[in-house]
Amino acid sequence: MINPVTELIDFGRAALLRPVPRDHWQEPSQVLRRRIVAAVTLVVGAVFLWYSLRIPAGDPAFYGWTLALAAVWIVGAFASGPLHLGHAWTRSGGVGRPIVQSLALAALITGVFLAGAVVVAQIPPLRGPVDALLDHARFGSLPLVWVITTINGIGEELYFRGALFAAVGRRHAVSISTVVYTLTTVGTGIPLLVLAAFMLGLLCGLQRRVTGGVLGPTLVHCLWSSSMLFLLPPMLDVLG
User: For 155-198, how does the pLDDT look when each residue is reduced to its tens digit (9 = 90+)?
Assistant: First the structure.
């Protein structure tokens, strides 16, 4: 008989704690290049993010600025050096692409955030900024916002769990990339967005360390952000 608790513990270890063997050695010159490119990209990206989230809901300029932000992350990531897709442990003990693992992690973090929304809905100081952010989907083109959100999710993971993670090096890469990712959202003035960035960044950082690549974190990020975009607004409306 399958023990659900044991299965969950084993999954957590395989997905977030036990790295898959790989050899991604970088020459000192490659590390220096990554760090320079990553630093420049971070400054430019943080400015673009700060400005784009201050554009009023329904303003067409929001689409252009957020696409430009995605371009900053993507160009900076690939300019920094090679990126890897990564591999994950399978149930049988082998390795494969982190598809199923990412689906499970995305479902887990989505469930946590939707549960938290029940509390947030009852606290006006917290709900107000969240509603303002979601108004881009309510009053704009939802399909277009989804496409842009997905592209930005891909760009952020290519940069933060790709270029920046590799630039930091093996020691403290998870903590440093998570802190930097979180700090880029502080300027938005939305406390729950900062918290979301920390939780998502930590989860994706741990998965990046295990898989050695950006595919898993990118899938988790995009699935989570899509779920928040489509499920959170109606849920908050129902909760009043």
Answer: 999 999 999 999 998 889 999 999 999 999 887 788 888 999 99
pLDDT at 240 over 80: no
Q: Global pTM? A: 0.94
Q: Which residues pair with 88 in a beta bridge?
A: 96
Distances (CA, A) of 157 to 37, 70, 97, 205, 216: 16, 10, 16, 9, 9
Q: What is the predicted pLDDT for the residue at 112?
A: 95
Q: Which pair of tokens denotes residue 48?
A: 């673009």
Positive or negative: CA dihedral 106, 112, 113, 117: positive
Structure tokens at 42: 């971070």
SS (H, E, C) the chain: CCCHHHHHHHHHHHHHHCCCCCCCCCCHHHHHHHHHHHHHHHHHHHHHHHHHCCCCCCCCHHHHHHHHHHHHHHHHHHHHCCCCCCCEECCCCCEECCHHHHHHHHHHHHHHHHHHHHHHCCCHHHHHHHHHHHHHHHHCCHHHHHHHHHHHHHHHHHHHHHHHHHHHCCCCHHHHHHHHHHHCCHHHCCHHHHHHHHHHHHHHHHHHHHHCCCHHHHHHHHHHHHHHHHHHHHHHHHHC
Domain positions in the chain are 27-85+96-239
Sign, CA torsion 43/47/48/49: positive
